[in-house]
Amino acid sequence: MTHILEISSLRKAYADGFEALKGVDLQINEGEILALLGPNGAGKTTLISTACGITTATSGTVRVGGFDTVENFRQARSIIGLVPQEINLEPFEKVINTVKFSRGLFGKPSNPALIEKILRQLSLWDKRNNQIRELSGGMKRRVLIAKALSHEPRVLFLDEPTAGVDVELRRDMWEIVAELKRDGVTIILTTHYIEEAEAIADRVGVIASGEILLVEDKEKLMARMGKKELEVQLSAPITEVPENLMSDALRLSADGSALIYTYDTKGERTGITQLLADVAAAGLVLRDVVTRQSSLEDIFVDLVHEGEAS
């Protein structure tokens, strides 16, 4: 598979000695959606800014579409679209003029049909003659995406694209991202919303303290690191786990109404059969049994804690 973005040994250090990036290596496949997860201060925005040529790296290289972002800045930057976290738009300008202007900044000839297609795709066509100041926060974010797409980039960076928008609009944005992928655009997004990565990403990267902890196919990651919980709901609450059931994998729910058993989905034996036999031997009566798969959020939290501890 072709790598459209190649980051090698990328390091960013400041005069006070702080290292925002510590030798990051990352390869992005053409046409994929990569979600980059990490806590505040992990280096997500610095990585994007450096990849886009906005921030100068201390060392290392970034190549986009085969072009080095330093030696071949114009060629590399023409391939990239960037949607920043901050909404910084001219409030009194019309939506359509704002998007046309962005296309012109990249030296692209006028293309009214393309601008119309982008605005329609982002549900902005009916508001094309509105001033920016008349739009909601969510619509302004759509304008940022339209600006980023106006010069037909092959790679789109989305830095916290749904920050501060409601759940309904967030789901609309997910659909927009999926449509962009169908059009062949490679998308790298940073997000604090774990469900966002779980819903739309092909691969997930986790960054903490300026280092990439892993990059892996989302489904494989969840299968490899995910755990399941078996909740044994009891007909009557208990105050403590019976002695014959004492195990690190078993805990009592806060209200005493259920036993919660954590097991590895990859194990040859889950231990569930023995557990249920032991529960019956302890004289406990079952009301119901429920299983839950650990979410990407659980995995992310565990990885970050491991990275910070090491």
TrEMBL record:
SMART domains reported for this sequence: AAA (SM00382)
GO molecular function, a single term: ATP binding
Keywords: ATP-binding, Nucleotide-binding, Transport
InterPro entries: AAA+_ATPase, ABC_transporter-like_ATP-bd, ABC_transporter-like_CS, ABC_transporter_ATP-binding, P-loop_NTPase
Domain of life: Bacteria
ABC transporter domain sequence ranges: 5-234
Keyword ATP-binding part of the UniProt annotation: yes
Family matches, as PROSITE patterns: ABC_TRANSPORTER_1 (PS00211), ABC_TRANSPORTER_2 (PS50893)
The name this protein goes by in its record: Multidrug ABC transporter ATP-binding protein
